[in-house]
Amino acid sequence: MKILLVDDEKKFVSSLAERLTMRGIAADWTTTCEEALEKAPRPEYDIAILDVKMPHMSGIELKKEIEAKRPDMQFIFVTGHGSEESYKAGTREAASYIIKPFKIDLLIEKINELREK
How many Å apart are CA 77 and CA 53, to the nearest integer? Predict the structure, then answer.
């Protein structure tokens, strides 16, 4: 299993990938939606963890684009801007919706839930 992390905050997303890898979860990352759209069709990615608010395209829009190419991929949203409206939209579109900052154990728990499905 391999995870694709997409967040426009480079320090956050690179650190998150490193922390997941240290815990035995293979993770790759990008800071742009364009690069995510290039990487996502690769069969090694099973889960995409997407930031909801990014420049040029929201995580929800990105999820729909990826899903068109990879209908089997599963998604988790993360955000630092947890409005009620984005929460409702995010929970309709993904298995989980996590507010930043979060503990790595919570994310791993959500990843493991998806692995079991």
Answer: 10
Q: How far is CA 21 from CA 10, 18, 61, in A?
A: 16, 5, 27
3-class DSSP state for residue 24? coil
Question: Taking a C-beta distance cutoff of 8 angstroms, is the pair 1, 24 a contact?
Answer: no
- CA dist., res. 83 & res. 52, Å (int): 11
Q: What is the pLDDT of residues 13-23, one digit of tens each?
A: 999 999 999 99
Neighbour order of strands in the sheet with 96-99? 26-30, 2-6, 45-51, 74-79, 96-99
pTM (2 d.p.): 0.90
Q: Which of 39-43, 52-56, 57-61, 93-97 has the lowest mean pLDDT?
A: 93-97
